[in-house]
Structure formats: C-alpha cells, structure tokens
Amino acid sequence: LIAYTQSAVGGGLKAKLVFAHDTRHFSRDFAEYCAKVAAELGADAFLFEDARSTPQLSFAVRELRADAGVVISASHNPYQDNGIKLFAAGGRKLSDDVESRIEAELHRLAGPPDTEPSPIASAGASSGSGHDAYVEHVLAYLEGRRLGGLRIVVDGGPDRLQRLRTGAPRPEPEEAAPRLDVQVDPRRVRI
C-alpha cells in the first residue's frame, strides 16, 4: 500500500495515510503497528485516538486530502477474523485491480519482519481526533431534513451516539423517533 500510494503521489512528495480501527480484539494494536510501519517507510501516518467507524475513516481521508486510508475491522465477519479495509484518495474503496496488485506484492514479500518498526513520528495528535468535523458533516447533511417516521441507526459506538444526540438539534415533537438503547459487549466480541 505504501509503494502504491508513494507511486501515486510522485517523487519528492510523501504519501499521506489515515488509519482507523474498530473495537474488536487487537484492532488497536494492529492499527498502531500498520501506522508505525507506514511512518517508517516514509509516509505521513495519521492514527485516530480511539475506535472509529468505516464511514468516518472515509470522511477523514477526504478531509485530510490523504492518499489512502486503512480500517482494521472484522466488519461483518466473526470477531476473531479481524482484517483490513483499504481506501483510495477521496475515501473511495480501492479498485479490485489495485487490491489484487497489493495482494500479489504481499505474497511476494511474505515472511516475518526482520526488525521491529520504529515509533510513529507524525501520527496521532497532529491530525486531531477528527470527531468534531465528522459530526458537523453529518449534522450539516441532516440540516433542514424531516426525520419523522424514520428509524435511525448511528454507526460509531455508544459514546459517539450520545455526543451526536446531545449536539444535534432537537426534532419537532411529531418527528421524534423512539430512543434506541445501544449496548456494547464488554468482551468486545460484538459492536
């Protein structure tokens, strides 16, 4: 992925990648490791401070004008099958052709790394949490829309749902939707 993004941005420029993860087992560890490797290979790596949804990663790739994005997530698979989702510039899914070329290169390079990657130099705090900008984006999209009769699901975990509830304009009484209580499995098996 680093070689692909570096070739896309051209010589003399550093590729910029954004990394996110869900709440599943070892997702944070895997995301940190991937961001460290990206930074060690010369990219600017931005890592969210905590779990984020896939749509929020896509938004961050667009907002930061990044060259690629990575989400560590089991997605719809069983929690023990954690994996990786790759995004191109603009927050779009990588084309099947590009994914196939990256996968072929991974197979060619297969094997454990010889050394531990160095700590991330540019990831983390410099990108901010990105949460406020994402919430503002969602709220702006909803501005002036009537939500009556709809059941709304917010992807992002209970703390984000609460922040969105408290920061969002109150719907008119006739538009109020029933409250949906969200629960997160403390074992982090389901989100």
Written description of the protein model:
The structure is a single chain. By secondary structure, the protein is an alpha/beta fold. The protein has six helices and four strands; from the N terminus they run H-E-H-E-H-E-E-H-H-H. It has a four-stranded mixed beta sheet with strand order 2-1-3-4, sandwiched between helices. Strand 1 (16-21), helix 2 (27-40) and strand 2 (44-47) form a beta-alpha-beta unit. The longest helix has 14 residues, at 27-40. It starts with a helix and ends in a 24-residue tail after the last helix. Residues 118-128, 156-166 and 168-184 have low confidence and may be disordered.
Keywords, separated by commas or semicolons:
191 residues; alpha/beta; globular; 36% helix; 4-stranded mixed beta sheet
